[in-house]
Amino acid sequence: MSVTIRQFEPRDFSGVDHVWSTCFPDDPPNNCAAIAIPQKLAFQPELFWVAVDDERVVGSIMAGYDGHRGWLYAVAVLPTVQRHDIGTQLVRTAEDALRELGCTKVNLQVRDTKKAVAAFYSRLGYTKEPRVSMGRRL
Would you tell me how many other CB atoms lie within 10 Å of the CB of residue 4? Predict the structure, then answer.
């Protein structure tokens, strides 16, 4: 397997849609590719990467930076190619880009039912913080 990490291109849409629907089958409808990708392309599109193996999208990551904190979103790798360092490469790519923007702290959210996902981030140096995640749909 020879995976390349590169910025998202419009031709990657269906591949990312497949990765997300496979990796996030229970996500709410507002997180679907048809909504989230155009929103990302309208704001900081340079912070959206895909992992490609022989022109096939096998993973993705989106990041954001507000000048104070960085965030990681939609970090996904197809189950058939997990444990090949692809997720780590995606996270490190996003971290490097955020660091270049002056970001000194990166946040992410993991559903409390996703123990294996939390363990993956722990292996990358992320720690659980005593916070309550709150949100409001506008």
Answer: 11
